[in-house]
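Pair request: fold both.
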Amino acid sequence: MKQIFLIMVAISGFFGDLAYGQLPNCPCAGSRLKRPLFPGSKDSIEIIQSYDPNAIIGPDGVTPNHWVSVKDRLPYTILYENAASASAPAKRVRVISPIEPKEDAATFQLGSFGFNNQTFAVPPNTVSYYQRLDCRDSLGLYVDVTAGYDQIANEAFWEFQSIDPLTLLPPADPLKGFLMLQDSTQPLNGHGFVNFSIKPKQNAITLDTIGARADIVFDANDTIPTNIHVNTIDAFPPTSHMTALPPSNTNPITLSWTGTDDAGGCGIDYYTIYYSTDQVNFNVLIPKIRRNDTTLTLPPDTSYCFFVLATDRVGNAEVLRPGEIRCTSIGPPLPVTWLYFKGKTVSKDNLLEWATAYEQNSKQFDVERSLNGTVFNRITVVNAAGNSSQTKIYQYTDHDIDRLHSEYMFYRLKQIDLDGRFKYSNIVRLRYNENSMVNSIVYPNPTQGLITILVGDKALVGSEAALYDVNGRLLENIRITANSQSFSLQAYVNGVYYIRLSNKEVLKIVKQ
């Protein structure tokens, strides 16, 4: 018996890999197999090996198709397990997850991993990783961990290799491995996991799918595939349209709108209503509403502008489109019903034009001008029609504007009726020697961190804006890359900030 014992020890050391299942066509992973020591021998050894029922878990998404947004970072967890029926710890485990056609390999990031009762963090934004873990206290082993993205094979991989601290080689003892046998008193033993995340390709379209999967190899066993986790992509935001408002209103007022998601999309979740009293700074009036109308009572004798933006069920948010702002004045019936007030620059003159659809007891229009958009001064008076139910068109020319030595000029009308009551029109901003511009708009304002700037001057696209604090200190420059530019103030404390555009517009932002 002593000789047989020595032979078994020698075979266990010399054919260590054989003892971990390098036998062809192994009929049952995790079982105990009897094999002869040598061909024709009546003595036998017991082949012991590890076993893995495994799975991949991805984002649940939105039912019924596990919808995700094309902008989402998709988290995945791959589980592997040395089953209770296994007869030995696992020395080496290799996990592979092929990159799907609609996954962007350039956005792949490793997450934490763990085995038995231990979890190990990976630094943020890590694409490749190697570490020799000192597990001598718990396992009597080192564990080499190598993980990353294989560009040639186009797959993510993780490799866990047990290392004997004495030989610095894979352990020869078949009962030595990093992934332990399951133990009813230690429920985490025998379990392992890896985490990673990745984004969809930005050219993916709605109804494209991502079918994430993984392959796991225990020691020298056959590859065992996981389940396939499928998500469906919603690539585009919905669109909405607010119904036009009359020029004047009385409380309560009703706002109504329509909306539709992109073809095949997951559907609209809610709408956000924004409002402004100065036509520049728009704040959230109703953050989430799932109806298509609402009735409001607002402080009277004020002009209000509104717009609506839709968000779908995976968080794709609509961006404000030009021409989607609706304005009205709330109060008693106005003596004048405005049609428009506009202007343009021709040579060295600013031509102003406005029209009314109805006038009652209207006395005059004071034309006011400002060089900074804040302080206005009257430059002329234009007599009103008094009483009229027909369209009336008025004009005024501000001559020789070069004398003002200002690139920008702002105009508004102060309509005064016979009893002294008055209302202001919208503000027209004109740029010397160029066609009239519209104001840039910022929303939401106040904000909790994220703002969107809708530039009024297309020439601003490609320029840089500057962010200042309330003390005039330059904080950072912002590259304007589109007509609608998003920017985050999350890194800054609550307070007042200013964004100065390259055309000298200054937007005041309140972070709270």
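--- second member of the pair ---
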Amino acid sequence: MTRVKRGIIAHKRRKNLLKHTKGFRYGRKTKYRAAKEALLHAWTHAFKDRKRKKREKRQLWDIKINAAARELGFNYQKVITQLIKNKIKIDRKILAELAEAHPQVFKQIVEEVNQ
């Protein structure tokens, strides 16, 4: 019977997993078992923190809109409510950017919806 060399698939799987541990410290970048454990935690935190990043951005937009609206004598709730009532579809990201970079345009929008 001829000799059969095995382990090609297993070696490939381990090599692919170790590609993702570049930059890890100590044995976590070279030892398969430690690397697998490290990636399990790293990918969990990465997913969770992508969601957290989005949440924090949305909160920041709301704060910027509220601050700009208060300078004009309104508040966040009134501005958003009036935008919805007047069927003006500008998302909060754009409103926050306008409030920060182009206050004149933001002022025009707020005055237009509150007439």
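Observation on the second member. The helical segments are 8-19, 32-71, 76-85, 92-101, 103-113.
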